Design the sequence.
C-alpha cells in the first residue's frame, strides 16, 4: 500500500493529467493561449499555423483554442526554449542568478552546467553553491559533476574530488551525470581512479573532453561510458565520434569558436546526434552576440536550415540529456517557449518558462535572490610573499621562455638569451620578456611556480588574477618585483579578482569575491568594469592581439600545448613533464 505522501502525489498527478486532457479536447479553457502563431515543429521541420494552449505550465494542444488569458502573436513564430548542452557558469564572472537574468531574455530556458571551475576552488561546497543558487530560478539548471578536480596531478587545486565525493551528489534530482572526462589517458588505460568515477555515473550521462584521441583509444573512451564531445575542431573528428554513437556538442564560446568549421559536416543522416553549447562565454560576448541564440544565427548564416538549427538547439539537446519533457512545441511538453518574428534574423522578442512570460524585448521580467554560502568566500589563502620570494634564480644566461601566439591559447617553448645579475633574472626593457609567477592560493603551501613570458608587451607594471585555469591559483605577470608585489597584495586585499599595477601603484582592480571567480553584481556592471580593466591593460603596453586577463588566465593550464606554468613549476605539455627554466646545454 502506498504511503499517504505518495497517494497525495498520485492524486495530484491524475488531476494534472485530466486537466491537460480537458484543455486539449476543448472542454476547458486553457490558462494561457498564444493566438495566431506560426509554430515551429521540430519533429517534422515545418511551420504550423494556429494557437498554443497552455495549462499548468505545460502545452495542452496546438490548433484553435480559447484561454483565460490570450496573447495575439499576430503571425510571429513560436519555438521551443533553447538549451545549452555544456556551460561553465563561472566563465560569465557572475552568479547563477545573474546568469539567468542574462540568458533567459536571449531564449535559453535550460542549461547543463559543469561547475568545474568553482569545484577546483571549493570542492563539493562549490558544487552545492551552484545547486542551491539555481534552485528557485526560472532557468532550469542541471549539473554534471566535475570529474577531474584537479585537472592534472601537476598542480595544486583547492580540492581533490574522488569517486566517493561525487557519489554524495550523484542522486541529486538535478544532477544528470559526470562532467567532462578530461583525463582521457586515465580512461584509456583503465586506471582504478577513473574506473571508480565512471562507475559512480553508471546509468547516467558522462560528458567527454578528448580532442585528440582516435582509433582504439577513442573506442576505449566510448567503451568507458563517455557519450558526448564538445572538443571537436574538425569535421573529421566529429564524424569519427558520431560513428561510435557519441553526441556532438558544437561549441561557440569566447575562447574556442568551432561552429563555422563543424556545421559544414551536419547532414540529414547525422543531425539528430548534434546540438549546441557555449562551454565558456564571457560577459561582453553574451551581452553583444548572445548565448545559444547566437549559435543558431551563426548556423543559419552558414547555410543550415533555420528549423534544423532550432531543433539542434532544443529537441536534440533535450533528448541527449534524457530531458524528455522539453525541447518541442507539442502536447505534454513543458511550455518553455520563445517568440520571434523572422526565422533567419532569429531575434527573440518573448520568452516563456513553464507558461509564464519571463522576458520580453531583451529584458528579464523577474527578480532574483542571491543565496550566501560560506563555502565560496574568503578563498584567497596564500603564504605571505616578500620581494625576495619573487626573484628567479638562473644558472645560465639562457632561459626556456613561454612564447605567446596571437589569438591562441597554444604557446611555444623557446630558448632566449636573457640578462642576469648575481645569479638572478633581471628585466631588460629592450627585451619583451616578463616574469610570470603562479602562487598556490588555497592552502598556503608557499608554492611559487616561476617562469618567463615573451611577447606580452607589458611595461612598468604588473597584472594579477585568481582566474587561472583550471586550479585557479594566483597568477601574476610583470617586470619588477615592486610591481609584482603590489599586484599580489591588491589581490589579497580584495579577496580575489583582478588587479593592475603601474609604477608600483595599483591603478585598477575588480573584486571577484565568490571563489575568486565570480561577482554577485549584474553582468552589465561586471562587463563595464572588465572592459575598463582591459583598457588599462592595453595602456600598460599589452599588445592588442592578447586579452590582458584571459591570456594570462590560460598560461597556468597544463593541458594546452606547448609549455605552461603551474604552482609546482614550468611544465612541458608535449612531454608531460616538468622542465628547468635555465638552459645550460
Sequence:
Amino acid at each position: 500500500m502506498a504511503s499517504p505522501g505518495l497517494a497525495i502525489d498520485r492524486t495530484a498527478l491524475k488531476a494534472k493529467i485530466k486537466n491537460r486532457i480537458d484543455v486539449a479536447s476543448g472542454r476547458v479553457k486553457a490558462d494561457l493561449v498564444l493566438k495566431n502563431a506560426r509554430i515551429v515543429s521540430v519533429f517534422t521541420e515545418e511551420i504550423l499555423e494556429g494557437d498554443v494552449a497552455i495549462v499548468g505550465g505545460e502545452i495542452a494542444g496546438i490548433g484553435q483554442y480559447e484561454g483565460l488569458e490570450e496573447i495575439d502573436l499576430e503571425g510571429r513564430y513560436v519555438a521551443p526554449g533553447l538549451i545549452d548542452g555544456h556551460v561553465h557558469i563561472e566563465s560569465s564572472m557572475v552568479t547563477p542568478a545573474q546568469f539567468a537574468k542574462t540568458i533567459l531574455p536571449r531564449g535559453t530556458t535550460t542549461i547543463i552546467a559543469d561547475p568545474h571551475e568553482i569545484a577546483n576552488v571549493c570542492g563539493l561546497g562549490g558544487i552545492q553553491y551552484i545547486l542551491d543558487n539555481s534552485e528557485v530560478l526560472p532557468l532550469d539548471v542541471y549539473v554534471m559533476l566535475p570529474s577531474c578536480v584537479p585537472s592534472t596531478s601537476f598542480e595544486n587545486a583547492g580540492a581533490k574530488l574522488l569517486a566517493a565525493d561525487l557519489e554524495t551528489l550523484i542522486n541529486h534530482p538535478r544532477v544528470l551525470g559526470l562532467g567532462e572526462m578530461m583525463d582521457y589517458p586515465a580512461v584509456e588505460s583503465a586506471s582504478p581512479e577513473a574506473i571508480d568515477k565512471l562507475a559512480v555515473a553508471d546509468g547516467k550521462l558522462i560528458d567527454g573532453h578528448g580532442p585528440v584521441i582516435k582509433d582504439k583509444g577513442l573506442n576505449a573512451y566510448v567503451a568507458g561510458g563517455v557519450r558526448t564531445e564538445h572538443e571537436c575542431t574538425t569535421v573529421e573528428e566529429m564524424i569519427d565520434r558520431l560513428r561510435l554513437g557519441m553526441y556532438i556538442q558544437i561549441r561557440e564560446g569566447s575562447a574556442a569558436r568551432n561552429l563555422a568549421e563543424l556545421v559544414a559536416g551536419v547532414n540529414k543522416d547525422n543531425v539528430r546526434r548534434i546540438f549546441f553549447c557555449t562551454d565558456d562565454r564571457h560577459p561582453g560576448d553574451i551581452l553583444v552576440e548572445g548565448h545559444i541564440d547566437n549559435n543558431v544565427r551563426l548556423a543559419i548564416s552558414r547555410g543550415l536550415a533555420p528549423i534544423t538549427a532550432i531543433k539542434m538547439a532544443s529537441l536534440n539537446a533535450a533528448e541527449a540529456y534524457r530531458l524528455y519533457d522539453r525541447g518541442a512545441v507539442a502536447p505534454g511538453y513543458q511550455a518553455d517557449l520563445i517568440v520571434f518574428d523572422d526565422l533567419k534574423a532569429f531575434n527573440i522578442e518573448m520568452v516563456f518558462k513553464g507558461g509564464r512570460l519571463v522576458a520580453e524585448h531583451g529584458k528579464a521580467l523577474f527578480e532574483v535572490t542571491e543565496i550566501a554560502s560560506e563555502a565560496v568566500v574568503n578563498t584567497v589563502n596564500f603564504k605571505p610573499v616578500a620581494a625576495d620570494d619573487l626573484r628567479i634564480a638562473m644558472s645560465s644566461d639562457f632561459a626556456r621562455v613561454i612564447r605567446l601566439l596571437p589569438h591562441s591559447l597554444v604557446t611555444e617553448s623557446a630558448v632566449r638569451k636573457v640578462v642576469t645579475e648575481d645569479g638572478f633574472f633581471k628585466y631588460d626593457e629592450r627585451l619583451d620578456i616578463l616574469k610570470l609567477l603562479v602562487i598556490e592560493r588555497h592552502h598556503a603551501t608557499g608554492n611559487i611556480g616561476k617562469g618567463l613570458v615573451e611577447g606580452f608587451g607589458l611595461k612598468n607594471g604588473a597584472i594579477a588574477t585568481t582566474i587561472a585555469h583550471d586550479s585557479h591559483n594566483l597568477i601574476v605577470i610583470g617586470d619588477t618585483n615592486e610591481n609584482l608585489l603590489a599586484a599580489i597584495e591588491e589581490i589579497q586585499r580584495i579577496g580575489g579578482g583582478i588587479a593592475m599595477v603601474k609604477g608600483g601603484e595599483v591603478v585598477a582592480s575588480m573584486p571577484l569575491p565568490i571563489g575568486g571567480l565570480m561577482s554577485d553584481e549584474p553582468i552589465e556592471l561586471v562587463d563595464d568594469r572588465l572592459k575598463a580593466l582591459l583598457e588599462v591593460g592595453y595602456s600598460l603596453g599589452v599588445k592588442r592581439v592578447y586579452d590582458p586577463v584571459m591570456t594570462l588566465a590560460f598560461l597556468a593550464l597544463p593541458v594546452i600545448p606547448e609549455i605552461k606554468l603551474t604552482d609546482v613549476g614550468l611544465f612541458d605539455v608535449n612531454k608531460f613533464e616538468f622542465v628547468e627554466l635555465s638552459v645550460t646545454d
Remarks:
- The radius of gyration is 25 Å.
- Residues 185 and 191 are 9 Å apart (CA to CA).
- Residues 377-578 form one domain.
- DSSP finds 16 helices and 30 strands in the chain.
